[in-house]
TrEMBL record:
<feature type="transmembrane region" description="Helical">
    <location>
        <begin position="102"/>
        <end position="122"/>
    </location>
</feature>
<feature type="transmembrane region" description="Helical">
    <location>
        <begin position="258"/>
        <end position="280"/>
    </location>
</feature>
<feature type="transmembrane region" description="Helical">
    <location>
        <begin position="418"/>
        <end position="443"/>
    </location>
</feature>
<keyword id="KW-1133">Transmembrane helix</keyword>
<feature type="transmembrane region" description="Helical">
    <location>
        <begin position="301"/>
        <end position="321"/>
    </location>
</feature>
<keyword id="KW-0812">Transmembrane</keyword>
<feature type="compositionally biased region" description="Low complexity">
    <location>
        <begin position="43"/>
        <end position="52"/>
    </location>
</feature>
<feature type="transmembrane region" description="Helical">
    <location>
        <begin position="217"/>
        <end position="238"/>
    </location>
</feature>
<feature type="transmembrane region" description="Helical">
    <location>
        <begin position="142"/>
        <end position="164"/>
    </location>
</feature>
<dbReference type="GO" id="GO:0055085">
    <property type="term" value="P:transmembrane transport"/>
</dbReference>
<feature type="transmembrane region" description="Helical">
    <location>
        <begin position="333"/>
        <end position="358"/>
    </location>
</feature>
<feature type="domain" description="Amino acid permease/ SLC12A">
    <location>
        <begin position="74"/>
        <end position="520"/>
    </location>
</feature>
<feature type="transmembrane region" description="Helical">
    <location>
        <begin position="464"/>
        <end position="484"/>
    </location>
</feature>
<keyword id="KW-0029">Amino-acid transport</keyword>
<keyword id="KW-0813">Transport</keyword>
<dbReference type="GO" id="GO:0006865">
    <property type="term" value="P:amino acid transport"/>
</dbReference>
<feature type="region of interest" description="Disordered">
    <location>
        <begin position="1"/>
        <end position="60"/>
    </location>
</feature>
Length: 527
């Protein structure tokens, strides 16, 4: 991970325009460089770079100021770290209450299928065009510049709002040990900690997140193993004189609240799975994306199925579904019922670590998106400034704004506003997923139309076009089905209004720049 090494993703990777026009990758390489040699271009050349014939001397010079060099193990664990957080440890309690045990398992299974289809489409795009800020760059190229702007803002919203949720969750978890201390105080402490971790080098972030995620993976495996022992009566369970087995799954019927809540709560499941797309954000900073990205996609899927659905089955078997909620983590509730000394406190610490880990990856992703938008000129370019250590500090500060939402929710009502934050973040994630699926559909059509073959792709989406259209339709349906959840219907309206405002901001920005044209700013660095 030497900082002096060239970005592996820059080697032999075509520009976005190359994939559409058939221009050889060597056409954009410096004179004297062969296709097999590392071209002196950034790993994250964007569509505007392609449009200008690969000129990266000014607009894209800031890319070289970032200290990058992630490996495959970092890519996999960062993706898992962004996913395994409040979605599993807290939101799952809300989902169980709404949809019932079997309904929750079904909702998570449907969500797993949706996210896997989206990741397959993202894999093709990320391997063909490994760029930082990939989602909005793809949308700008294959849908339109206005949509590219909207997707960038949406993804920023996904993680900044999620950050508020994670910080709120951290405050709630600390209440177990310090019930007299206000939630907002612990949320503020978490904000300071996570900001400090991200203000250091990216190399430190990647290693720290690798070990954070490893702790979570080990804890979940232990939870499932101990839970299974309790289910089969090997470990005694409070309130049971016999092995609980799986009677709680169907005690009040298969769907105690009806079938519609299963679809309505898919939004909460989407929030739980949001973060898998971090693979696309880090693809432009990962060595050998042709191998690392597909591997991360496939290993992440089976791990999510095991961790999420396995944990949900254990929770639903051991906890009466009406006792689940967001006031206390279902994980802590299970261990308290098992009666293992200090087990609940240990699990509470692990859950807290998981929340901090998800916040860490989320702040990284949000910072990268803000930095990319500033670098692309979508927002003021001073957001793209970096320190002499290569840290986009101003973008980091903007991304941390989501932490204020944590303080607001903890002061007003942590157990209600938190759910609204989940809804907003989940909807924004689904909007991004819809765009990813559609971009891959357009990309493949243009690739074939330009005279290329599928065999030329280093990684192609299996089952195209059914996989791609399936991802697009299922994501769109899950977005619209939020209407049937009365408690989260407001979030749907707010999200639609926000999308309109984003488009409005883009057109106002474009109008202003036409009236006040200016030359591109020179790359700036903070002292």
């Amino acid at each position: 991970m030497s900082q002096t090494e060239p970005d592996a993703a820059a080697q032999s990777q075509p520009h976005i325009s190359d994939t559409m026009t058939g221009t050889p990758a060597s056409a954009n390489a410096p004179a004297g460089a062969s296709i097999d040699e590392p071209a002196n271009v950034p790993a994250d050349a964007s569509s505007s770079d392609a449009a200008s014939g690969g000129n990266t001397n000014t607009k894209h010079a800031l890319h070289t100021n970032l200290k990058r060099g992630m490996e495959s193990r970092h890519l996999q664990m960062i993706s898992l770290g962004g996913v395994i957080g409040t979605g599993l440890f807290l939101s799952s309690g809300y989902t169980i209450q709404q949809a019932g045990p079997i309904g929750t398992i079904l909702a998570y299974a449907i969500g797993a299928v949706i996210v896997y289809l989206v990741m397959l489409t993202l894999g093709e795009l990320s391997v063909a065009m490994p760029v930082t800020g990939s989602f909005h760059v793809y949308a700008e190229k294959f849908i339109g510049p206005g949509t590219g702007f909207v997707i960038a803002i949406q993804y920023w919203l996904t993680w900044t709002v999620a950050l508020g949720s994670e910080f709120t969750a951290a405050g709630l978890l600390m209440q177990r040990w310090f019930p007299q201390t206000p939630t907002w105080a612990w949320s503020a402490a978490c904000i300071i900690l996570i900001f400090t971790l991200n203000a250091l080098s990216v190399r430190f972030f990647a290693e720290a997140e690798f070990w954070f995620a490893s702790i979570k993976v080990f804890a979940i495996c232990a939870f499932i193993a101990i839970g299974l022992l309790a289910i089969f009566g090997v470990i005694p369970m409070k309130g049971y004189t016999h092995a609980p087995m799986f009677g709680n799954l169907t005690k009040d019927g298969i769907f105690p609240n009806g079938f519609m809540p299963v679809f309505a709560t898919i939004l909460t499941v989407n929030f739980a799975f949001s973060g898998t797309e971090l693979i696309g954000v880090t693809a432009g900073e990962t060595r050998d994306p042709e191998t690392a990205v597909p591997k991360a996609i496939h290993t992440t899927l089976w791990r999510l199925v095991l961790f999420f659905i396995g944990s949900i089955v254990v929770m639903c078997a051991l906890i009466p579904w009406r006792q689940a909620g967001v006031g206390e983590s279902p994980f802590v509730l299970v261990f308290s019922s098992i009666g293992i000394p200090y087990a609940a406190d240990i699990m509470n610490f692990v859950v807290l670590t998981a929340v901090l880990s998800a916040s860490n990856s989320g702040l990284y992703a949000s910072t990268r998106m803000v930095w990319s938008m500033g670098h692309e000129g979508m927002i003021p370019r001073w957001f793209a400034k970096t320190t002499r250590h290569g840290v986009p500090l101003l973008a980091l500060c903007a991304a941390m704004a989501g932490g204020l939402l944590a303080l607001l929710s903890s002061v007003i009502a942590a157990s209600t506003v938190y759910l609204v934050l989940v809804a907003l973040s989940g909807l924004s994630a689904v909007v991004v997923w819809i765009a990813i699926a559609y971009c891959q559909i357009v990309f493949r059509k243009r690739w074939i139309a330009s005279g290329h073959t599928v065999a030329e792709l280093k990684y192609s989406t299996p089952g195209y076009p059914y996989t791609s259209w399936g991802a697009f339709i299922l994501c769109t349906a899950s977005f619209l089905l939020v209407f049937f959840d009365k408690e989260q219907r407001f979030a749907l309206g707010a999200e639609l209004v926000f999308i309109v405002l984003c488009y409005g901001a883009y057109f106002v920005q474009r109008w202003w720049r036409k009236r006040h044209p200016r030359e591109e700013d020179e790359p700036l660095r903070l002292p």
